[in-house]
Amino acid sequence: METVSEFATEPHGVMNRIDTNDHGHKVYQFLVNYQCRKQTFKATGSDAAILDGIGDGWLRLMTFDLAGEAPTLRLRAYSTHYKAFASDLPLYTEWYGNEHPEMSEAEFVGLDECTFDLDDFRARFGMPSTQGQADRELALAGE
Question: Can you give the pTM of this predicted structure?
Answer without folding.
Answer: 0.73
